[in-house]
Design goal:
7 strands, seven-stranded antiparallel β-sheet, 43% helix, single chain, 174 residues
Length: 174
């Protein structure tokens, strides 16, 4: 089998997998952001090029801010999102962890400002937003941390938010 045919087969396999899982995820996401089903999607044939471009841009970024908040007290994440709302309230790229290399959409991402917890529930892990130039972005993740106090191990769910790129970090620092 030649390389071109192998690539096409790999794309078709990814597309088939995406077709199986996307309807349920889109149904859930559209309850939060009704515009998602009509958003411009990065086509599967262009995904590899897009991801390569994305990795190249994000490897050059050295400005970032990271904050953590417990799941029971996520107010600092909401405050950070409100602070950078000017950056979020425009056309950006958006994807969730489950679909990161299969489905990226271009749409106004203001909906995440008040709904990040619901988006995380749908995905179970994280989501990411990139600006149109792929030089700024944010990522919110939910993970379980452990703490040891007097020899007793305790577990706690924690949100972590990372904002990168000069424009978006400067907006956060104002």
């Amino acid at each position: 089998m030649d390389e071109k045919r192998k690539k096409r087969l790999a794309i078709l396999k990814k597309q088939n997998y995406l077709n199986q899982i996307l309807p349920d995820i889109l149904n859930q996401l559209s309850k939060i952001a009704p515009q998602i089903p009509n958003a411009k999607v990065v086509q599967m044939e262009n995904m590899e090029t897009f991801l390569r471009r994305l990795r190249g841009k994000t490897n050059l970024i050295n400005t970032s801010i990271t904050k953590r908040a417990t799941k029971q007290n996520p107010h600092i994440i909401y405050e950070m999102l409100k602070t950078v709302s000017k950056c979020i309230d425009k056309e950006n790229y958006f994807s969730i962890s489950k679909l990161r290399e299969l489905w990226i959409v271009e749409l106004n991402t203001q909906f995440i400002t008040n709904n990040f917890e619901e988006i995380i529930k749908i995905d179970g892990d994280s989501f990411t937003i990139y600006d149109k130039n792929l030089t700024n972005g944010l990522w919110i993740d939910l993970s379980q941390d452990y703490f040891i106090n007097s020899g007793v191990v305790s577990y706690e769910w924690v949100y972590e938010m990372k904002i990168w790129g000069e424009e978006w970090t400067q907006e956060l620092l104002r």
